[in-house]
Amino acid sequence: MRQQRLLNPTLRDVPGDAEATSHRLMLRAGLIRQLSSGIYSYLPLGLKALQHIQTIVREEMDRAGAQEMLMPALHPAELWKASGRWDVYGPELMRLEDRNGREFALGATHEEVITTLVKDEIHSYKKLPVTLYQIQTKYRDERRPRFGLLRGREFLMKDAYSFDRSASGLDASYQAMFNAYVNIFTRCGLQFRAVEADSGAIGGTDTHEFMALADVGEDTIVHCPSCQYAANLEKANGVIANESTSSTNVPHAQPTKVHTPGVTSIKQLSQFLTTKPQQIIKSVAVQADGAPVIVLIRGDLEINEIKLKQVLSVDEITMLSEAEIKALGSIAGFIGPVGLSTVKLLADTSIRGLNNAVVGANEADYHLQHVDVQRDLGALTYVDVRNVGQGESCIHCGHELAFAKGIEVGHVFKLGTKYSESLGASFSDENGISEPMIMGCYGIGVSRVLAAVIEQHQDERGIIWPNAIAPYSIHLLTVQVKDEAQMTLSEEIYHTLTSAGYSVLWDDREERPGVKFNDADLLGFPLRLTVGKKTSERIIECKERRQGDVYELNVEQLLTHCQSLFN
């Protein structure tokens, strides 16, 4: 491709709301342009990179035995209602009506559609197992689209669905997809970790997220540097050590009421009583599917709502109002477990064995000191409902856990029979007995992978593409396009390389050399070839974008060098 004809509008400055490095670079390098909030057009270079990622995805999915197909993006509401997700999925589901008033949704995911299709087409165990996938645009009405392609309202996704006759069959399908994902992200040049995760609105049991490590990531990864344990913060577990010390403990002292006027936060209480937040028991009043619950947790920790929902087996958690707290016999800001017998108490494991603790006194402007959990609170139900905190240990090997930020680029789920039972997807076994199909679901954010790669592969000058997904492998620069000898040699090199199968962008623009060199660094293709002052000697300058190595080659050496570099 000759660059003078390429639609590649590079920018010196980018909009101030482009926070993520990948977003800024994709705008500057002319890969994408915004149409509306969270909605982007892919310009030629951006589309080429996206297509290379899709090729890798297809190759690995096909190698794993999956079959590609394509499903509609417009879904009848009755499918989502049959699965129970029309009301559960939330406002992110884009809903609309046709001219006859019939309800539809734009596909955010395709469990309902694929399950209905397979239900109608597969009826015998002889046709199982089967894994089907597609690469298609998805739609989600994000409340706050941000970071360019990392969180948009329209995005490209690969979603696959496996159908098996047994749990062991699902295990095999799941492992095949897991391995395919490892290959895909490795080939794309990503640094990533597969972490235990929550299944969210998709549902199911076992699930892993594939997280590309990046500071801009909105997910927190908890991992063990010593063993292979890794989990999303929503799912992570750790071993906590209570920080009560013998110098501050008074295990035989009875609870004592202390006046704490206007002191309602953990920070205020810690300062007022000169005590550590670790010695304070926070009482959090919530309503779980309409039923009040008081959750007890150490003052320096936070409740993990997803864990709490799972423990209570509820769909919705909301905070109690001041009036609702008063109806329980307490008061907002001073809630405590001592003497509060009208409501269910749930204790995080962080308070187990704690003594000399501070709790609310259920009376305005008062707290209780010297509370011994075992003595004063009786038999409590202990559960893990907290976010793992700094200093906690690995549940497997005891090593201190570490924290990192990550971008979710893939997610694999064991769905079981959640959708097959609700939508009637069953098969007849060898004895003619009807059984529900056992499903798995496997997604990759293809456009998000593109942004994640750029987040990890860039420097102050621009993008540094991995070879496998670079829009072009080679950037050929002619320093002086009015110099006939330079243009003749450039033409020869261009045809030699393209005939050998290499993708080449030839910068034949009438621009200053400095502009061309800066644009080449910004676009970041793996190898830059410069035809300039040594044209008469048939010598060109080579620069490898990643290592920054600069050296000269005779044109006759070029093909051999490219074979070595790219193969």
TrEMBL record:
Give the reaction(s) catalysed: tRNA(Pro) + L-proline + ATP = L-prolyl-tRNA(Pro) + AMP + diphosphate
GO terms of molecular function? proline-tRNA ligase activity
Q: State which Enzyme Commission number(s) the record gives.
A: 6.1.1.15
The regions listed as transmembrane in this protein's record are none
The alphabetical list of record keywords is:
Aminoacyl-tRNA synthetase, ATP-binding, Cytoplasm, Ligase, Nucleotide-binding, Protein biosynthesis
Under InterPro entries, the record lists:
aa-tRNA-synt_IIb, aa-tRNA-synth_II, aa-tRNA-synth_II/BPL/LPL, Anticodon-bd, Anticodon-bd_dom_sf, Pro-tRNA-ligase_IIa, Pro-tRNA-synth_IIa_bac-type, Pro-tRNA-Synthase_IIa_type1
UniProt main location, coarse: cytoplasm
The keyword Aminoacyl-tRNA synthetase belongs to this UniProt entry's keyword annotation = yes
Question: What does the record give as the function of this protein?
Answer: Catalyzes the attachment of proline to tRNA(Pro) in a two-step reaction: proline is first activated by ATP to form Pro-AMP and then transferred to the acceptor end of tRNA(Pro). As ProRS can inadvertently accommodate and process non-cognate amino acids such as alanine and cysteine, to avoid such errors it has two additional distinct editing activities against alanine. One activity is designated as 'pretransfer' editing and involves the tRNA(Pro)-independent hydrolysis of activated Ala-AMP.
State the domain notes: Consists of three domains: the N-terminal catalytic domain, the editing domain and the C-terminal anticodon-binding domain.
Give the similarity note.
Belongs to the class-II aminoacyl-tRNA synthetase family. ProS type 1 subfamily.
Q: Can you state the subunit structure given in the record?
A: Homodimer.
What's the protein name?
Proline--tRNA ligase
Q: What is the scientific name of the source organism?
A: Paenibacillus allorhizoplanae
Q: What is the lineage of its organism?
A: Bacteria, Bacillati, Bacillota, Bacilli, Bacillales
